[in-house]
Amino acid sequence: MRFFKVLIIIALAVTVTACGPKSKFLKYNGPVVTSVQVHKGARKMYLLHNGRVLESYDIALGFAPQGHKQFEGDGKTPEGTYYITHRNPNSAFHLSLGISYPNTADVAFAEAAGKSPGGDIFIHGGPRRPVARRDWTEGCIAVTDEEMEVIYSMVKPGTVIHILP
Length: 165
Fold this sequence. Notes:
This protein has 165 residues and is of the alpha+beta class. It is built from 3 helices and 8 strands.
């Protein structure tokens, strides 16, 4: 009888654990993501390993997506080659990966116009509230929270990101 009580307690513990909160920090053991490609016009992002697509995602962009980001507040998502700077587990948008915008050319262009180039460009989850349009960020690249959990597990700081028109 005691054996059955122990067995029931173990079964209940497993059930409670399985029904508990899901962690947003997933484990990834597949091929290394060697680059990220963003195709702004197609609203697609690809995670690649040596040119082979591992995953693809539909994305949202800045609220004024056409063209390269030039100034703070312009609503554009940058275009060009950058890299992932860091992982932010405490993002206001679930999880996020920092992008190295602005680079020295971006800074020089904005300064020549007497403006700020802006910054804080990320790949992130969200939105936190309903949005009325497809492109809603301030210039970031957005996916769903669930997709961001996978991306966060796969993409490491230092990974190159090519953001194409």
